[in-house]
Amino acid sequence: MTSIKPITLTGQRVILEPLSQAHHDGLVEAAQDGELWNLWYTSVPAPAGMEAEIDRRLSLQDRGSMLPFTARLADPATGGPGRIIGMTTYMNIDAGTPRVEIGSTWNAASSQGTGTNAESKLMLLRHAFETLGCPAVEFRTHWLNHQSREAIARLGAKQDGVLRNHSRTQDGVLRDTVVFSILEHEWPMVRAGLEYRLAKRR
Fold first, then answer.
1. Bridge partners, 100 (sequence order)
2. At residue 90, does pLDDT exceed 90?
3. What is the arithmetic mean of pLDDT over 33-53?
4. How far apart are CA 100 and CA 131, in angstroms?
5. Of 196, 13, 187, nearest to 107 (Cα)?
6. Residue 4 within a domain
7. pLDDT at 58
8. Cβ atoms 15, 70 nearer than 8 A
9. How far apart are CA 152 and CA 135, in angstroms?
C-alpha cells in the first residue's frame, strides 16, 4: 500500500485539501449554513466546538488512523480553491489489508444536491482504489439517517449489514450502524456511474 499521507485532490466542482486549523473560520461558516449541528442524526460540531473537532481529527491523523480533508468549492473562473463547504476523511485506516472507510463527512446546506458530494466521493474512491491499492472501501452511517443511506446506495455501494447497538450518539443514545462497501472489482462500474451523474450536471 502506498503510504497514506496528506494530499490535495482537485475536481471541477470541489477541492479536497489537507485539514488544518487555518480552516477553522471557514468551517464554522459552513456549519452555520443550515445550522448542521442541530441535526440529531449527525455529529457536526457547533461553532464553539470546531477547534476541538479539528484537533481531534489531526490527532487521529498523527496516529495513522485518519486522513482528514477540508472541502472547498472550486472557483469556476480559475479552478482554484474557493469557499469552504465542509469536511470529509479517510478513517479507520487499516494499512495491512489495506482498507479505508470514507466518513465523518458533512457539507454546508447550500452545497447539498449540487454534485460536490458526488465529486468528492469520486476523487476519494479513485485515490483509494487506483493509488492506495485498496481492495475495498467502506461507508458507515446511522440506521435512522435515511438521507445518508440513500446517498451511499446511489454511489453503488452494497449494504454489508447492520451493527446493532454499535455506538452511542453525542447525547448517549445507542445507535445501530449500517455498513456498506465497494469492492475493487466493482469500482469501474461505480466510477462510470459517478462520472455519468456528474456529466449530466455540466
1. 137
2. yes
3. 83
4. 13
5. 13
6. no
7. 97
8. no
9. 18
- Identify the helix (H) or strand (E) that includes residue 72: strand 66-74
Residue position matching grid coordinates 445550522: 35
Position 40 scores a pLDDT of 64
Q: Total structural domains in the chain?
A: 1
Are 34 and 89 within 8 A, CB to CB?
Answer: no
- Domain range holding 125? 9-200
Terminal-residue alpha carbon distance, the chain:
35
| Burial of 23 per CB tally in 10 Å (0-12, 13-18, 19+) | buried
What is the domain-level CATH number for residue 76?
Answer: 3.40.630.30
Peptide bond into 188 cis (omega under 30): no
State how far the Cα of 29 lies from the Cα of 16, in Å rounded to an integer.
17
Q: Tell me which DSSP letter residue 47 carries.
A: G
- Contacts of the segment 167-172: beta carbons below 8 A, 24+ positions apart: 169/40, 169/43, 169/142, 170/43, 171/40
The half-sphere exposure of 18 on its side-chain side, counting CA atoms within 13 A, is 10
Q: Is residue 2, in this structure, part of any structural domain at all?
A: no
Is residue 136 helix, strand or coil?
A: strand
Would you place residue 54 in the very low, low, confident or very high pLDDT band (cuts 50, 70, 90)?
very high
CB-CB contact of 175 with 168 (8 Å) = yes
Amino acid in the structure at residue 96: G
Q: Are strands 81-94 and 66-74 parallel, antiparallel or unpaired?
A: antiparallel
Q: What is the rounded CA–CA span in Å between residue 184 and residue 103?
A: 18
Phi and psi, residue 72, nearest 5°: -125, 150
